[in-house]
Amino acid sequence: MSNTTEDIFKNVIAHAKEYGFVFPSSEIYDGLSAVYDYGQNGSELKNNLKTYWWKAMVQMNDNIVGIDSAIFMHPTIWKASGHVDGFSDPMIDNKDSKKRYRADQLLEDRIASLDEEGKTSEAEELQLEMDNALKAENLPRLRELIIEQNIKCPVSGTANWTDVRQFNLMFSTQVGAIADESDTIYLRPETAQGIFVNYLNVQKSGRMKIPFGIAQIGKAFRNEVIARQFIIRMREFEQMEMQFFVRPGTQREWFDKWKETRLKWHLALGTAPEKYRYHEHTKLAHYADAAYDIEFNFPFGFKEVEGIHSRTDFDLSQHEKFSRKKMQYFDPEVDPETGKPYGNYVPYVIETSIGLDRMFLLTLINAYEEEDLSTEERQDSRTVLRLHPCLAPVKAAIFPLTKKDGLPEKAREIMDSLKLDFNLQYEEKDAIGKRYRRQDAIGTPFCITVDHQTLEDNTVTIRHRDTMAQERVPADQLDKIIGDLVSWKNVL
Ligand code: GAP
């Protein structure tokens, strides 16, 4: 049994590997830092999270449509968006260990330890100083704070620091055969720009009227210098983003609406509300006029899972300037104040941007439980993933009680009747108890056992993951029983 939250986090990572959720990438070559692969159960869970998001954003809103834009984009896009010049982290190197750190993270760790020591006012003062330095892009001041706080490199143990420098996070590569400057393109660091540059295509081809949204799920790449906390900070990760185009002047109202709507989406999965909180940005990104994070209380503290940003008309105006193509929308609706149509304008944008991998980790941590099942007679325990049934990678496992007497054939027949609608697993090896434990460990909500009585009356036992209760039900009702529990109607 795990005692500390640190133990639990370590156990979740080990569990994720042992049960086919997440593997370190290129493991047989000793891995590749900050890159991970999703295994057979992980990719099912990830797909279910994508489906939950897509249904909530696209299917349930008739003014939101989804697209799938390319990862490679014209390099000027990243000039226009500000990423070439501004998408960087303040880095500092330790001269003795030659290790590189994010200056703001060194200070944030210091703030966290001051907090833990109960030195709240010192922590607050440092936070303010750091925020001001970041806002003013005052890199020498960040270095001064690190020195004043006597922050040492965890590897060399010295405070022999270089200056703080900005380090761009975009990966670049070359297109075509000749490696020439002009052929440099970038792996997208966010999916949002693929939406912005297609905004008119979608608006015109879909005859969309403001307010409307464009959603997208896809990979993004960032050359994170500090790889941390498993799949929290990766170099290749996935985002689920939605840009909502609104009339200028209405952005605050839509920002508040989306902030609330997105938290509700998280809570609908049954997560305890106290595990979430909002965090207002003090240092706004170059494109935003308001920003909140939705944070989750991970075993290592509250961390951002999703950002809600009011991006003004920055991106569309920039693309208008750099591409010299009009990004305007004609709004025929009449302004009650002037009595005239609102006419042409560049829309303002509210963005919701959630990291799929962080959502995945949150879901796994939240579901993971080491349950003590000991009685007076004997010690017992199980590890169970209490995943919402809609998200469970396998919806039901089918077990023949034994490997003979026609039970496997009957179990296969039941499985064949259900497998088009549900992801199922067939297992005949080991005692039933062991099979239950294996399914608990991957969060399967139902285990269905086919026994000799099934051959007589076509009934099966169905065992529920959370209560471990068993009941006898007609096999021809399984479709409805499973369907009702795993229906998206339960969360949407
Ligand atoms: N388009 C806005 C945007 O990209 P962001 O706050 O940089 O905003 C949005 O990223 C979300 O993407 C974050 O809330 C986080 O969940 C996820 N994310 C960002 N960087 C990540 C990384 N290196 N690894 C995993 N997820 C990341």
Automatic annotation (TrEMBL):
Major subcellular site: cytoplasm
One family name in Pfam for this protein: HGTP_anticodon
GO cellular component: cytoplasm; extracellular exosome; microvesicle
UniProt-annotated binding residues for substrate: 102, 190, 237-241, 351-355
Amino acids binding ATP: 222-224, 232-237, 304-305, 355-358
Coiled coil feature spans: none
This enzyme's EC code(s): 6.1.1.14
InterPro entries, A to Z: aa-tRNA-synt_IIb, aa-tRNA-synth_II, aa-tRNA-synth_II/BPL/LPL, Anticodon-bd, Anticodon-bd_dom_sf, Gly-tRNA_synthase/POLG2, Gly_tRNA_ligase_bac, GlyRS-like_core
GO MF: ATP binding; bis(5'-nucleosyl)-tetraphosphatase (asymmetrical) activity; glycine-tRNA ligase activity
Span of domain Aminoacyl-transfer RNA synthetases class-II family profile: 140-389
Localization in the cell: Cytoplasm
Annotated catalysed reactions: tRNA(Gly) + glycine + ATP = glycyl-tRNA(Gly) + AMP + diphosphate
UniProt entry keywords in alphabetical sequence: Aminoacyl-tRNA synthetase, ATP-binding, Cytoplasm, Ligase, Nucleotide-binding, Protein biosynthesis
One GO biological process term: diadenosine tetraphosphate biosynthetic process
Family (UniProt): Belongs to the class-II aminoacyl-tRNA synthetase family.
Role: Catalyzes the attachment of glycine to tRNA(Gly).
Subunit relationships: Homodimer.
Name of the protein: Glycine--tRNA ligase
Name of the coding gene: glyQS
